[in-house]
Amino acid sequence: MAALPTRRAFVGGALALAGSRGTAGTAPAPGARALAWHAALEKAFAVGDGTGLYREYHPPRAGDERYSTEWPFSQAHVALLDLAMMPGAAGRRFAPALAQVRAAQQRYWSTTSTTGVAGHLAKVVAPLGRGDDLYYDDNMWVGLAEVQHHLFRRDAESLRRARAIFALIRSGWSEEKGLPSPGGVVWTQKSDNGDRNTVSNMPAAELGVRLYLITRERAYLDDALRYYRWTNATLQRRDGLYADHIKRDGTIEPRVWSYNQGVPVGVNVLLWRATGEGRYLAEARRIAAASRDQLVAGGQVDDQPPPFNAIYFKNLLLLADATRERGDLDAMRGYADRMWRRRRNAAGLVQFAGRRAELIDTAALVQVEAVSAWRPADWALLY
Q1: Which of 16, 40, 84, 139 is most open to solvent, judged by the fewest CB atoms within 10 Å of its CB?
Q2: Helix or strand or coil: residue 89?
Q3: pLDDT above 70 covers what percent of the chain?
Q4: Strand, helix or coil at 362?
């Protein structure tokens, strides 16, 4: 219980804001809404047993796991990182909470996996849990968060953790013979998995280029280009958008998810930074334009899961840092406005019809609102 106040220090005032929907046509500023979403998240999902962990659902029910799975937890971790990076005192006061959630992140870390390489498992490890399977994309989001934290704090530990996660990713490259489109990083270590996904390859490429830009070790860039080229050859459509995954039998799942479009934008921006080759920035623009046409102008973005959209818009802001264009910030804020007005329940949480509120959805809106309040110069630190 002793650790709880660091994450709840600002709940009272922010919850008062969360409960007030304002007058017609008005809404609190992005930074204020980030605080409100986060205060509601802490009140509803923090377990409060000194572990720093969260529940996955609200309201809780008998039979629920005590602690959330890794993917939702990682997004709550990223939410605190984004809050801590808001300008001035607003961000600085989240430093203790960020330290706490970073320590709790390690409760999913296993020193081994089915490939013999350490990584984050889908559930907390002993003594709090049994760990369960390993998902490569889950680990990639944590790796990218570690890089963001390193760029923010310039600390050696974040870089060490990001390197360790990339070692895991390298072990996930498929060596299975006879596959259509051989290669690719697999989605999960589950024995029945045959999928290789955009989300298990493009974030790997993004992490690899980030590590190259920090360390200048050529092997990171070479691996990143391998993941990037495989995904483009296998899952990119002619319009620049990306399908979700390819199955072992060669069947491609064509669904267009927002995060699968945003991450390739970010990868291309970082490759442009790493190589100086203008074709990468041009490709980032092409993918971004195609995604805007379908998801934003086409009105589909609101039907996408909030964590997918948080990742999508952050990568568009990374492009905006390169182009100095601000239209994507407006689109992100418009999305945030609609979620604030239409999807906020009486507890101040994101909720969709027919299901309970989930940690990951409110964490995503914390991220979107916090980053909306950042200085534009800091967009360069995003995924």
Answers
A1: 16
A2: helix
A3: 93
A4: helix
Question: Is 70 exceeded by the pLDDT of residue 363?
Answer: yes
CATH of 4-381, one of 2.40.128.110, 1.50.10.20, 3.40.640.10, 3.40.50.1400: 1.50.10.20
CA–CA separation, 136 and 74 (whole Å): 13
SS3 335: helix
Q: Supply 134's token pair.
A: 């390993």
| Contact call for residues 290 and 241 (beta carbons, < 8 A) | yes
Chain centroid to Cα 240, Å, comes to: 22
pLDDT of residue 26: 57
**Residue 360 in this model has a pLDDT that exceeds 90:** yes
Going from the C-alpha of 150 to that of each of 119, 143, 162, 173, the distances in angstroms are 19, 10, 9, 26
Distance CA 276, CA 232 (A): 20
382 vs 153: CA distance, rounded Å: 14
Q: 129, 73 in Cβ contact below 8 A? A: no
Altogether, the residues listed in the chain come to a count of 383
pLDDT at 19: 41
Which token pair is 349? 């949480």
Q: Which two tokens stand for residue 26?
A: 């008005």
pTM for the structure as a whole: 0.93
Where exactly are the structural domains of the chain?
A: 4-381
